[in-house]
Amino acid sequence: MTNGKRYPVTIALAAVNILIFLICELTGSTENSEVLYRSGAFLTSSISAGEYYRLVTAMFLHQGIRHLLNNMLLLVVLGSTLEICAGRWRYLLICLGGGLCGNIATWYVYVIEEKEVLMTGASGCVYAVMGALLYVIIRNGGRVRDLSLRQMLILLGFSIYFSVTDANAANMTHLFSLAFGFLLAGLVYRPRKSENEGGNTDE
């Protein structure tokens, strides 16, 4: 039976996001830009001024409960599958590494375009996980565990559609993170004989 013990990294990441959200709510409001900025939100000029930590901290901040719940639902559902398939440390590298690379690439584009943008959310990590799962499914002949290539493409299509039609969504970050997740999976993922049965996650 699948349980939290099989994907502890996913549970830990979700717990950290929820804890930070609660702290921000208790010290102000997660829908207040000033509170988010003080907490480490992505802001183009601040990062350019040397506050590079914002590229990481922004991934653990959310604007409102709906933003948090949407990201955590996808992170737990998709992240647990990737963690079981790829192993804990590879999964952590893909999830955080893909999200971070997506933020760095987005910041670089905003600097070139001279756009001042305040941005938060774990969606970069979620899209990195989706990109990695796409690679894993393709690598395993079109299916991994209960997830088929067709299902993954439909989910990805809906996710991109809702992102593009949302005026507040960080579409550039989503696409960059998706690509980096796919690339990182190509670099670090190693299939197992028991892939569709889950294997073990002790790596």
Question: How would you explain this protein's 3D organization?
Answer:
It is a single chain. The chain is mostly helical. The chain is 66% helix and 4% strand. The strands form two sheets. Strands 1-2 form a two-stranded antiparallel sheet. The chain has a two-stranded antiparallel sheet with strand order 3-4. α5 packs across α6 (88-113), α5 (65-86) runs parallel beside α7 and α7 (123-139) packs antiparallel against α8 (149-164). The longest helix has 26 residues, at 88-113. The model is unreliable at 197-203 (pLDDT under 50).
Measured as a percent range, the helix fraction is 55-70%
Report on the biggest sheet: 2 strands, antiparallel
Strand content: under 5%
Structural class: mainly alpha
Order of helices and strands: HHEHHHHEHEEHH
Task: Summarize this structure briefly.
With 203 residues, the chain is mainly alpha-helical.
Brief descriptors of the model:
4% strand, single chain, 203 residues, two-stranded antiparallel ribbon
Please give the structural blueprint.
Layout: H1 8-26, H2 33-39, E1 42-43, H3 44-48, H4 54-57, H5 65-86, H6 88-113, E2 118-119, H7 123-139, E3 143-144, E4 147-148, H8 149-164, H9 171-188
Antiparallel strand pairs: 1-2, 3-4
Helix pairs in contact: 1-5, 5-6, 5-7, 6-7, 6-9, 7-8, 7-9
